[in-house]
Amino acid sequence: EDLGVRHRLWVYSGRRGVHCWVCDDAVRKWSPALRAAAVEYLSLVKVGVWGARDPLPTPDPDEGGLVGVWIPPDPGEALTPPAQHREPLQAEFPKKKDSVQRWELLRGRMERARAAGGRGMCYADWEVMLQFCFPRLDINVSKGLGHLLKSPFSVHPKTGRVSVPLDLQRLDQFDPFAVPTITSLCHELDMAGSDGEQEDVRETEPKRHMRDYKRTSLAPYVRVFEQFVEGMESARRGERIRQSGEC
C-alpha cells in the first residue's frame, strides 16, 4: 500500500523462504537504487544486527534453541549488567531437554524481573522473538536486475518440493510440508495413467484430453497462478481502455 504496488504473487520457495513477485509495469522499470530503497523501507530486522546494539547469540544448531541471551536496556535507563541475568540462564539451559523448556525458563525470568520493577526487562523476550523469528528481506535479490531468480513451479534441489504460489485467502491452511514433490507428482501421474487406461478400455466415445497436472495435487496451485495472471491481464485491458478514452 505504501509503495503503490498492486500485482503481487506470493510463492513458497520449497524450503523455508517466500518470494514476492511484484509485476506492476512501473515497478519492473525501477532502478537498482529504487529497489534497494524499497527493501530498506520495508526491513524491520536486519540479518545479524539488533538495531545499533550487539548481535544476539547464534542458536545452537544441534540443540535447536537458545544457548545465551543478551538483555537490552531501555533507552535513557542505566544498563543493568547483562551477566546478572545471562549467567544464571546459561547455567540452567543445559539442564533443559529442549528449546521449548529453555524458552519457558527465559520467559519466567523475564516476568519475575518485570514484576520486580525491572523496566529494562520489559520487552526483552519480545525482542528475542523479533530478532529470531521475524522475516528477513534479501536485498541483493530484490535490487539486482541481473540476479538469478527462482521461478514459480521450479523444484527446490534440497527438499524436492515444488515452488508453489500461495493463496492468501487460505494462508492459514497452507502446510509447507504437504507441498507436492517430484516423487509425489510422479506417483500421482502413474496412478492417473493407470485409471485412464482402464477407462479407455470401457469407453468407446472419444473424450477431451485432460492436462496431466490437473490430475495431481499441483492443480490448485496452478489455478492460483492463473487467477493472478488473469487479474493482471484484466487490469492492463482496463488501463488501455482508459488511455484510449483520454486520447
Automatic annotation (TrEMBL):
Q: What is its EC number?
A: 2.7.7.102
| Gene3D superfamilies in the cross-refs | DNA primase, PRIM domain
Citing just one GO molecular function, the answer is:
DNA-directed RNA polymerase activity
Which InterPro entries would you find in this protein's record?
DNA_primase_S (IPR002755)
Q: Which terms does the UniProt entry file under GO BP?
A: DNA replication, synthesis of primer
Q: Which reaction does it catalyse?
A: ssDNA + n NTP = ssDNA/pppN(pN)n-1 hybrid + (n-1) diphosphate
Q: Which family does it belong to?
A: Belongs to the eukaryotic-type primase small subunit family.
Q: What is this protein called?
A: DNA primase AEP
Organism expressing this protein natively: Origma solitaria
